[in-house]
Amino acid sequence: MKISKNLVPLWNYPKKCPYTMKPTRIVVHNTANDAPAANEIAYMRRNSNTVSFHYAVDDKEVVQGIEENRCSWNAGDGSKGKGNREGISIEICYSKSGGEKFIKAEQNAVELIVDILKRYGWGIDRVTKHQDYNGKYCPHRTLDLGWDRFIKMIEEKLNDVPVAKKKTVTQIAKEVIQGKWGNGVTRRTKLKKAGYNYNEVQAKVNELLNKKPASKPAKKSVTVIAKEVIQGKWGNGAERKKRLTEAGYNYEEVQKKVNQLLK
Known about the structure:
The chain is α/β, with parallel strands linked by helices. It has three domains: 2-158, 3-Layer(aba) Sandwich (Lysozyme-like), CATH 3.40.80; 169-210, no CATH class; 222-262, no CATH class. It contains 13 helices and six strands. It has helices at residues 13-16, 37-46, 82-86, 99-120, 131-134, 140-145, 147-158, 169-177, 184-193, 198-210, 222-230, 237-246, 251-262; strands at residues 2-5, 25-30, 55-57, 61-64, 87-92, 127-129. A hairpin with a 3-residue loop joins strand 3 and strand 4. Helix 8 packs across helix 10 (198-210). The protein is elongated, with a radius of gyration of 29 Å. The mean pLDDT is 91.
């Protein structure tokens, strides 16, 4: 996992990280937009807003904007709040739209968190979320997918337990169609616990179910079908055309053969 630095300049310390800090915890956030980590840090470090964070993580890299020994204004719990004054803040990118980029960004965030926990000798109890400090529903998409699921990912990585590779949305959608994930509320609950976005999976299910099946090849020859038409087995007019088309036959070819046989 690539980690690069683009630190807040000294002239912007008063707005972004005015106090030294002895960290005691990690505070997890979602960016609520779809910008990459480099852009998140670049914007944060140069503006004059009293909003800041230590790291941004996307699907390809981790970018650090503030040293871990300085505070950040991330948790909304005031100038003396423990989230702001003692938390190493981490923003997970691509949370607005979610999808594969966000899933990978979350996985990279897990690696960063595990690295921090090991460096400081901390346990999993040191991993907190923005919501814990001021009630804001953040990290929103991580919460939607399940906070306990995210903590479990960290625990498995921390304990060197292999994490099973997630299936694609298309694979899960096909399993849903096969009935492996139940229906209604049961399906939604099971998908969420497994770390999948219900709406994304359901959209793919609908897409797969709405695909028109390829026309089946005609089993009988045009001549045989033409004779059946003459015998009245396929109806007349628009009905005949509709039935022949739905059965995979070329109406014009069949009608041409009918005319030849009737001469």
